[in-house]
Amino acid sequence: MPFRHAADAAVAAITDAASRRSPAARPSTVLVVDDEREAVVAIGTALAALGYAVETAANGADAMEKASQLRPDIVVTDLLMPVVDGIGLAKALRADPHTATTHIVLCSGVAEGSVRALFDGYDAFLKKPYEVDDLERALAGLRRLSV
């Protein structure tokens, strides 16, 4: 079931599993960036159910400002957005000493090879539409990298 079409059911399904996990094993803050409000709400709800502290932004410019103050552990961002796109955001995060080590998850409907040709400084890639389980696995992989 694609994430964007079944977020409520997916969040309900993972809430029980999330309650059994140790909060200390998770990064504390995730910044979710997407110009589609429905996507931000669905992703934020799923991540909150998994125990993450969630902040949101509607575009890369807004996210850069929030990230410099918030210093999130992970940024989950759409690729194609107005104002500043996901690649511009990722490059800015890597250039800022305060966010240079922030994990970046890029999400897009385009093939990863096309994205990697433009920028390869991200930590994980999710092809849209993706499932909640895909996001959870990506974040779990990033947690293992951080330990």
Key features of this structure:
alpha/beta, Rossmann fold, 147 residues
Write the layout of secondary structure elements.
Elements: H1 7-19, E1 29-33, H2 37-49, E2 53-57, H3 60-70, E3 74-78, H4 86-95, E4 103-108, H5 112-118, E5 124-127, H6 132-146
Parallel strand pairs: 1-2, 1-3, 3-4, 4-5
Overall, the morphology is globular
Put simply, the count of helices is 6
| C-alpha-based Rg, rounded | 14 Å
**Count of individual domains:** 1
Q: Report on the biggest sheet.
A: 5 strands, parallel
Report on this structure.
- 47% of the residues lie in helices and 17% in strands.
- Strands 2-1-3-4-5 form a 5-stranded parallel β-sheet, sandwiched between helices.
- The protein has helices at residues 7-19, 37-49, 60-70, 86-95, 112-118, 132-146; strands spanning 29-33, 53-57, 74-78, 103-108, 124-127.
- The chain is α/β, with parallel strands linked by helices and 147 residues long.
- Helix 4 (86-95) links the parallel strand 3 and strand 4 (103-108).
- The chain has one domain: Rossmann fold.
- Mean pLDDT is 84; it is low at 4-21.
Compose a concise summary of this entry.
By secondary structure, the protein is of the alpha/beta class. It has helices at residues 7-19, 37-49, 60-70, 86-95, 112-118, 132-146; strands at 29-33, 53-57, 74-78, 103-108, 124-127. The chain starts with 6 loop residues before the first helix and ends with a helix.
